[in-house]
Fold this sequence. Notes:
- With 151 residues, the protein is of the alpha+beta class.
- 33% of the residues lie in helices and 37% in strands.
Amino acid sequence: MKIIYASIVFVLLAAAGCEVKTTVSTPSDNSSSYHNEERTKEVLDHHWKTFQANDLEGTMADYTEESVLITPDKTFKGLKEIRENFVYAFSLFPKDSATLQLDKSIVHNDVGYIIWQATTPKFKLTFGTDTFIIHNGKIVRQTYAGVVTPL
C-alpha cells in the first residue's frame, strides 16, 4: 500500500509540474570494498552475534558517526543516538532470558537483509526484519520493523 501511495505522490508531483529529483550515491572510485559481499556478510554476521550477546561495544563497532538507523518509532542519527537505541533494545532482549532466532540472512553487494524472531519474558517478536547498507565494513544505513505480541 505504501509503495502504491509513493508512486501516486510521484505521479501527482510530476503532473503538477514539480521537479522530482532522484539520486543514487555511489563511490567515486568504485572501489571493490564498497560493494564487497564478503565484507557485507562479515559485518552482518558480527552484528547479529553481538546483538544476541547484548554486547553494546561490539554492536556499536559496526557503526560510524554518519550512520542512520530508522525504526517505526524514531530515526537515530550518529553514534550517540544509535547507542541509546541499543541500550534500550538490550533491556528489552535480556541476554539471560531472551531467545533470538535468525530465520533468514541475505547479502547482495552492500545490502544485508535479515528476518528474525524472539521470545522475551514480556513479549514475543513474531516477525522482525532489518535491512542494512554496509560500506567499507560499517553499517551506514539500517531500517528495522517488527511485530510484537505481549505475553
